[in-house]
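dumping this here before i forget
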Amino acid sequence: MAINISILGTGRIAEFGYIPAIKQIEDVNIISVLSRDQLRGEDFARKNSIPNSYSNIDDLLEDKELDAIIICTPDAMHEEQTIKASQAGKHVLCEKPMATSVASCLRMIDEIKRSKIIFGMAYNNRFNAGLRYIKDTIDSNILGDIFYARAILSTQQNDPEGWRAIGEQSNFWAMSATGSHMIDVFRWFFGEPTDVKATTISPKYRSVNDELTSLILNFGDHLICEITASAITPKANRIEIYSNTDSIIGENVFGIKTDELIYHNGQSVLIKPISSFFGEVIDFTNAIIKKTTPRSTYIDGLENIRIMDVIR
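structure:
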């Protein structure tokens, strides 16, 4: 069956993540785009060969040919757009973070359950080859006892006038842009943390939101994970896993396009990178067709926000 999708938002993730990935997938079509700026939306649609452009989500959702939406809008818009799409019977793939608060996530979940749509959380890094290698290696129990892990990721989209920095449409900056992904990866690897501590500063632009945040996640009394998310430092993209016998180091493992390097005990690991957005959309559309659960769900979105809330 063919699946018709609308993309909500005309930013970098939509243009360089989802559109190239969807164009590689047979029987998945982008039939419309939503932009708050009608002219911007029309230009985006022409540029990317998308048939229809809307500035009003209600008009977009009236399209009977539409099956699903991908939400790539600012964080504060996710709740309303998800609820309206659910009520219209449209499936939803929602960019991270799920919303701006736990309460917002819970309202979304109530409507998702009521409408019985498929909802996927867009944690594309679960489909990156390097991180999948680490996950498979952890699950194989060949690493011994894992005691410590850390990850650092900085965003190059560090505009102090951007919506994350200004704070009207997001409660987070660095954590919204990069930290959410690292939290998700460690939850994917190790489950739910038993304790979370955070420290955050905004020393460069004095943003109302976090410019630099570090989290410490405890998993019982046997594992500590550190996360550093930055909106102000030069490029950093790294993950490290340490057990009593092994180490795994990953470079360039997060992002839209990765040039991943994995070292297991100092030895280079041969991996075959794929587009993580391709894998994510395939997973989402297969869930629609087969009426199954996507790899990331609203539970992942909710628990991620619970952890991010610690910094506030």
